[in-house]
Write a structure and sequence with these properties.
The chain is an alpha+beta fold. It is 25% helix and 33% strand. The chain has one domain: Aminopeptidase. A hairpin with a 5-residue loop joins strand 1 and strand 2. The chain starts with a strand and ends in a 6-residue tail after the last strand.
């Protein structure tokens, strides 16, 4: 189920042999609210979660894990939740976050989900810009959500044909006839 993308990026479901690299990415990316090794392993094996990894080939031709995202689904629900997304700081600014988000949205749709929700730190400017550019809309605030007391902004995007066009920020126009 591997999917190669333009520019040498591959996004695929995580495997247990990715666990060490996923833990290292988690610790390099997040100062607080880190997922523990046991939780990451559980997510990889879960039937209601998807962990996607982004891989790039290095100069020697080896694949290097440069990003990851975790999607949670509930049984009998059409909503999914992005619980984590991380991109290696050495690869920031290359559009990997957007490529991972597209893969997460595709994965949610593949499982029949029509809505994707997430929480983001209110001081995470890069994350806020990414989500808003992709058509996510803020619908709530959770005070003191993170370990350090920072609030979370809750965002949502519909994943149906009637969703907003993220490039335009307004509903798509349908032509009749």
């Amino acid at each position: 189920m591997s999917r190669a993308a333009a520019g040498g990026l591959t996004v695929r479901p995580a495997r247990l042999d990715d666990l060490d690299a996923l833990v290292a990415l988690e610790h390099a990316t997040f100062a607080t609210d880190r997922a523990e090794r046991r939780a990451i392993r559980h997510a990889i094996l879960s039937k209601t979660m998807s962990v996607l990894v982004a891989l790039l080939r290095d100069d020697d031709g080896a694949c290097v894990l440069v990003g990851a995202a975790t999607l949670e689904r509930r049984r009998n629900s059409r909503s999914a939740r992005l619980s984590s997304i991380a991109v290696s700081s050495a690869r920031a600014g290359l559009g990997l976050g957007g490529r991972l988000m597209q893969a997460v949205e595709d994965e949610a749709r593949r499982h029949g989900c029509t809505r994707l929700r997430l929480e983001v730190r209110s001081d995470n400017g890069a994350g806020l810009r990414l989500y808003e550019r992709r058509g996510y809309r803020r619908f709530a605030v959770r005070e003191s959500y993170y370990e350090d007391g920072m609030e979370a902004w809750r965002y949502e995007r519909l994943l149906t044909d009637a969703e907003s066009d993220p490039a335009l920020g307004r509903p798509r126009q349908r032509r009749s006839g």
